[in-house]
Structures are given as C-alpha cells and as structure tokens.
Amino acid sequence: MDTPDIEDLFSGLGAITIRRMFGGKGIYHHGVIFAIDLRGELMLKADAESAPKFKEAGARQWTYEGKTGKPVLMPYWSIPEEAFDDPDEMTRWARLAYEAGVRSAGR
To answer: Taking the domain 6-105, which CATH number applies?
Structure first.
C-alpha cells in the first residue's frame, strides 16, 4: 500500500508545514507541532487529556529504551487505523493532536 501524502491526510485541519528533524519530519499547523513522521510512521501528539482517547482507540505510544534500560514514553501515538480510511476521522484525530500541541506550548 502506498503511503498517503501527508498534506492530503491532514487537509481537513488546514494548512500544514513540514520540517526535517532528528531523523524524521515534524508536522506543524499554525506553528504548533502536532505530528511527526519517524522512520516512515506517522504519529500524533497527545497529552494527559487526549492520550486516553488514543489508547482506547488501540493506538500505541512511542517508546524507546533509555540509557538505564528503562522505557522512555514519548508524547506521540500511532494514528488509529480507522482514521486512514475516513477523512473526517483523520481530521478529528489531527485536531486532538493539534490541541495537545497548543496546550504543551502554553498557548
């Protein structure tokens, strides 16, 4: 399956910009990072308010092994599968991610 174009996936949110970052891409809306493309996987930002919704939808949180061998939890989650087939669902998840980005930026 071909990877959908990032701009197309998030078109319901509005204009986005993409910037290269640490081996991937940061995806921004109104200057706020709300998603990343890391090693070919798109992940959406979540916080204490929105993360339970991602978990409930079956999304996985990005983790990596820290220097001490313990997992480090990052504030990005996989996109729920149903969102890839439904532009309205994708927009809903992207909006949740953008709102988490706004909260974390203290705006």
So the answer is: 3.30.1460.30
